[in-house]
Amino acid sequence: MTPAAETGSSVVDLRGISKSFPGVKANDDISFDVRAGEVHSLLGENGAGKSTLMGILSGIQTPDSGQISVDGKPVRIDSPRKALDLGIGTVYQHSTLIPALSVLENLMLGDSGKLRLDAASARTRLEEFGTILGVEVDPEARAADLALGRQQQVEIIKALWRGSRLLILDEPTSMLTPQAVAELYTVLGRLKSEGLATIFITHKLHEAVSLGDRISVLRRGRMVGTLDAEAVASTPPAELEEIVIEMMFGGAAESLTDAAELRVKVEEAEPAEVRQRPDHAVGEPLLELIGASAPGAGTDPGVEDVDLVLHEGEVLGVAGVDGNGQRALAEAIGGQRRLRAGEIRLFGAPIGRLNVMKREKLGLHYLTDDRIGEGIVGGLSISLNLFLKRIGQPPYWRYGSVRKRAIDERAEELCKQFDVRAPGVETRAGTLSGGNMQKVLLARELSFGAKVVVFHKPTYGLDLKTTLAVREMIRQLRDGKAALVISTDLDELLEVSDRILVLSRGRIVGEAEPGPGAAERIGGMMIGDVSLSLAGAEEAA
Amino acid sequence: MSNLFHQDVLTALISGGVIAGIPLLLAALGESISERSGVLNLGIEGMMIIGAYTGFVATYYLHSTALGFLGGAAGGVLACLVMIVLCVWLGLDQIVVGIAITLAGEGITSVLQGAQFGTTYPRLGATPTVSIPLLDKIPVLGPGLFQQSLLVYLGIIFAFVLTWVFRSTNIGLNLRAAGEKPEALDAAGVSVVATRSYAVLSTGALAGLGGGFLAIVGAGVFTPFMTQGQGYMAIVICMLGRGKPIWVALASLLFGISLSITTALQLAGIEISTDLINMLPFIAVMVALVIFGRRSYLPPALALPYVRGAR
Questions:
Q1: Homologous superfamily assigned to A285-374+437-540
Q2: Do B108 and B224 contact (CB within 8 A), yes or no?
Q3: Predicted complex ipTM exceeds 0.90
Q4: A-chain residues within 8 Å CB-CB of B169?
Q5: Cβ of A114 under 8 Å from any chain B Cβ?
Q6: Taking CB atoms and an 8 Å limit, are B187 and A97 in contact across chains?
Q7: In chain B, which stretches have pLDDT less than 50?
Q8: Does residue B187 belong to the interface with chain A, where contact is any CB pair within 8 Å?
Q9: pTM over 0.95
Q10: What pLDDT digit, counting tens, does each position of A226-256 carry?
């Protein structure tokens, strides 16, 4: 890392950047700069143009017009290589580490010039970075074997590996435990004092506010405005969030109601710790797992000896770091994976031997986390996707042939009910945005006699508005139905659940109710910190 | 049956196994380069037969084995250019293009052979061998292993070189990254298209060289369809060897022995229908797949064209 010229001077300056894709203006005349020794938060909904702007900075996309300057000199960033050469390092939302390679190999990737890999000096360099960041990484460990927080630290080192002075972080906290987020904050603090400029992209309000020295807001491809350092420093966080929400959603008449609605929800959602939960009666057990074990698949581990009871009118959360058996648990309940041992009961009757379709008919529905892979069939219409799990069933099919009109009529109703925005029900589902795709899946799994719904990462990758809508739908299931929410987003679980189980290494290691200190307690259990979870248990008792 | 273990029979078996195994070895090492980089090269069978033809023609007219080998490699390179342009540059389906190259290679070489030589199949003379002093005096093994064409030794040495390239060079790291996660390589500032192009180029050269060896040293003649599925065998070997050059080389030589067993059995005076014996290598492939198939490792990005920014 080369020390920045001077704290406070612009490292990168964007002027009038525009970029269009067929049908959308992703970036419209955006101006933006980031200075040495500051964290500049960039906030916006999905589709607001954040990713495009970052793509332009990291050389993956080229702008149609506008000027980029680095250290005051105009530059053209036409390839990722060029961006790196200019000192712009990016940590993408999706890991770019190669799981099968070691940490050191991942870092050395792209070190050109010599034929032989220079492992010795790379090792030394990694140690230096470890000291600066205050983290320790085993250079020989396979990237796949590292915890997500640790992987991200490696990503940050990788972004800085060739002497970057600007670090771009794209939604860096979306998959982290609270502890890992705290570590990330520390790392960013250390880098800031080294004079590094950081762009912190997020859609989580409180992060943008608590971490950013300056805050900029994008909406529909346009820069709404930037709150400068003095304003950010002098305004109390709560008020700041108000202002930012206004910037994100305010303005147009239509979205004013959205904004008002949002503000209510944010107020309700943000202080999860102190929020009062209305007491409500919890009914009969609907879904029970007794000593259930399910095998893993590939790198994805199985679950062992899981006991779980989901009552009528209850939203039960399952927390855990990704890759601790979530998928095995979800698929075992949904019927896509056979139990190896133990029992699963629905309404008191064993269903371990029933296949997906039979469980569906009983009212046990499963919303997959793999939206594109197994959720929808991209090449089929929205209506057919809505009826994918009802193929051959009356009244939509009769004598083995499809009744198109019946399907389309029902599909239109569902699209209206679940607010699927698409030109029509004939639209191919693969062309929808992530949020609309998820709404199609929700429409499918929440209708047709759903009684018990298993959600797996229900809001992963969705924008704030859709996320809030989805959470509202989950909460509505407390009305006589039941939901099991498996999620890696702890904030989400604290918001929607009545109880939270913690899954670690394929086992349920603890249980907590949302309340003061719950986040830390659950976070401790997630990473297997026994002392913390014991202390938590005592506290609770 | 005692004849089977007669010294001459064993020597013939080993020597024949090495000669039959080298085309497999070269092609399979080539395939492991392109598979490591994420290109499933099903056209390798076609590249081999084209290499066999060009290698044969070069030797026949230029009267030089070395130029023959060069000609073989050049033929393979020519054939693989099609794959580079269509699959790596334009992102077309690798499986379809691969099969097309194989079919075209078999057809074109048959036509050219027919047009040139009619129904005669001219033979090439014996090829020069290099004996390694002392080692070639070992009974049974000596003549089989250490009295061979220079290319045999080079091929085996290449397996070790390739191990080193994969493990400790920048090129090797780039290749592996291109097959494991091309977007990561791209983000690191290395061109995925260039990396894969060079990988396929070397595959073509090696497959052509293997085909050339088959025609020049192995058979001493070119006949249409003479590769008889050896390219596909190379793909299987590469998969079973998990792309690790040393394992790939060992497996190739073992399959080579199963290919040469026909001759050995005839020498031993055992009368089994040759049709049955000719099936042996393919049965060996199936048995090996059943036993070791689960252990095979294929890079995650194999056969997926890379388009920047697409998910």
A1: P-loop containing nucleotide triphosphate hydrolases (3.40.50.300)
A2: no
A3: no
A4: 115-117
A5: yes
A6: no
A7: 1-2, 310-311
A8: yes
A9: no
A10: 888 888 888 887 788 778 877 776 654 344 4
